[in-house]
Amino acid sequence: MKKRNITELQILAEILRKQPYVKQKEIADNLDITVQAVSEHIRNLLKKGYIRSRGRGEYVITEKGIRRLKSWIKEFSSYLEEINSAIYRYKDIWPAIAEEDLNEGDEVYLHMKDGLLHATKKKVGEARAKILHGGKAGEDVAITEIRGIIDIPKSKVIIFKIPPETFGGSRNVDYEKIKEMLNKMENYVTATMGTVGYVVAKKLNLNPDIRFAVIEGIVNACNRGCNVIAFITGKMAERVIKRLNDEKINYIIIDVSRNV
């Protein structure tokens, strides 16, 4: 994210908070930049149509500005999440799951499996570390001195589009079609969005891993290398698809209504 965009985001946010009476010096003091810089940014925001002037230092944000502010916030949140992940990668001690008995001082290879970090003496990828506190196979161990990049498997999402109650709900679902697809999948996380989607998952004897903040949960699971099976009710699928496109996550959509 460009520094200029961050500054414009801050100034636009300040205008939103203080409108209509906006004191450029106050904004400059809050952001630790010059009044001239604030003035230049405000001219650019006016030119882009994100704010409009009512004269005598009065500015109000426009609908276009609100949309851009929301977009900037999303971009900035992704940027901060990336930085946070980088900080996490460089902390001194990490937990991992031992794939065999490991002892203090052992040199191990690291890899992601089912969304969790695993440690093994077998060569898997290039990331390596040293065992600080050992443990038995399947237990958590403490690792340190991480070197290299931890490979994260490329994930995909299968969206089962579930008919809403107005179109028959769970009674109008082709369960055999879903079972056929599930038999081809391994190591997946289950997500449900909407009451009917949850009911369908339970009818298939699945316990949803993700039920709340579903879109964020799906994205986070994929970022950790997990495949996701998502039971999404009706038009809710559109929101999920938009986010997956934004995040460049692979997905397929299967409409499982019986009348399709």
UniProtKB/TrEMBL annotation:
Signal peptide: none annotated. One of its GO terms (biological process) is regulation of DNA-templated transcription. GO terms for molecular function: DNA binding. It holds the Pfam family DUF7839. Residues 14-63 form the HTH crp-type domain. SUPFAM superfamilies: Winged helix' DNA-binding domain. SMART domains: HTH_CRP. PANTHER family: BSR5907 PROTEIN, HTH CRP-TYPE DOMAIN-CONTAINING PROTEIN. This is HTH crp-type domain-containing protein.
